[in-house]
Amino acid sequence: MKFKQRVPLLRWSFWRMAASQGNIATLGQVGDGREAAVVEYVLANARKGDILSVLDTIDRFAYTESFLINIGDEKGRLLDAAVRRANPKLALELGTYCGYGALRIAAAAPSAKVYSIEMAPANAVNSRRIWEHAGVGDRITCVVGTLGDGGKTLDALAAEHGFGSGCVDLLFLDHDKNAYLSDLRSIESRGWLHHGTIVVADNVRIPGAPEYRAYMRQQQGRTWRTVEHKTHGEYGSVIPDLVLESEYLGE
Fold first, then answer.
1. Cα(first)–Cα(last) distance of the chain, in Å?
2. Which of 63, 153, 196, 240 could crosslink 3 through cysteines, CB 3.0-4.6 Å?
3. pLDDT in tens, 102-160
């Protein structure tokens, strides 16, 4: 569905979000209740068991109610295409937020098992409710933690969820932009990537992940083959952004 609102800079909820970067960094939420509100909006308006209806309803909320920081519809189509190219059996997402990215992965790869890592327990609770309503709660698992916790979350993925050599077919980065590179290298060091693993990174221009982008450029044709997709920020057509899609070539 197309929505008319394409200028987030004219919206109060956008500026409220922009002024709450500290909350987002520490709590994973803007702080005005919009993340809980989108859950109730989905339960009231989306068809139960219909993943596409749920995605459409989240987009409608982000356009007409309160701005959200999930990947959104325009960039989401880039993610969809990358997921279809990867054809994953197992996908890993870093940064769950309201569960939107994991839903898009599950929709584009109907047989995939999706794991999503989220630092904020409240976001995990909200996302699980949305996934259950969409009918994919059995295919998406949210693990509360962060890859920067000294290996605890990585160890849990291995011990409790069976992560092992070459298991990750698709990796989606949409969490702390400063952690993109270090977290990717942590996953790589575990041996969980394989030749052909696809990594999608959102918000590489805004808010920006310069260290990650520089690394992918330096490794072009060596360890990684990267395409930079020029696009726009979430739920708008004014602010430019980049989505990087990288294929792992191996050491």
1. 42
2. 63
3. 999 999 999 999 999 999 999 999 999 999 999 999 999 999 999 999 999 999 999 99
Tell how far CA 79 is from the center of its chain: 9
70-248 folds as Rossmann fold (3.40.50)
Query: What is the rounded distance in angstroms from the CA atom of residue 238 to the CA atom of residue 235?
Result: 9
Cα separation, 213 vs 84, in Å, equals 23
Tokens 């949210």 label which residue? 142
Burial class of residue 160 (count of CB atoms within 10 Å of its CB; 0-12, 13-18, 19+): exposed
pLDDT tens column, 45-70:
999 999 999 999 999 999 999 999 99
E strands along 127-192, which residues? 140-144, 168-173
Structure tokens, 184: 């990717």
And the tokens for 135?
């009918």
- Give the catalytic positions in this structure: 174, 177, 202-203, 234
* Of 135, 126, 106, residue with least CA distance to 38: 126
In the block, which residue shows the tokens 């004014």?
A: 238
Residue 2's pLDDT band (boundaries 50, 70, 90)? low
Tokens of 3: 């929505």
C-alpha dihedral, 120 to 161 to 209 to 242, nearest 10°: -100
